[in-house]
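Hi R.,

Here's the chain you asked about this morning:
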Amino acid sequence: MLMLDATLVPQNTQVSGAGDGEPLDISAAAGRIFLLTLHITGIIEQQALDVSVWGSADGAAWGEKSLAAFPQKFYLGKHPLLLDLTAKPEIRLLRAHWQTNRWGRGDGVPSFEFNLTIKEVPAELLRETSSAASSRG
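And the predicted structure, written out as tokens:
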């Protein structure tokens, strides 16, 4: 069985304002659990990046609320976040949305370079983690 391992925002994506990534078809892995990894590779001081992931059943309606949102980021680094779609098997498409903010000195235009990956978490790993947690309790 193939596990989903894909990109929601390509490597070296440079942004200076709000935007959306291309939709990613996850039909083959619908209703599963994923690891999202936000990797910020370029940034200037006094700015913030907000990244969220939205889902759709049909590619037209993306809902009122994101499925997952990273805490606001100000620094370079890799930031993981779990996305659990087990209660939402109707979600067939995902896309990233980002917003930027800049304050203080300088030209006032934010500048970020980042990417966002998604990787399916194997069910066996989840069972092992759950069993280990139960045995400690």
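Residues 123-136 form the longest helix (14 residues).

Let me know if you need anything else.
M.
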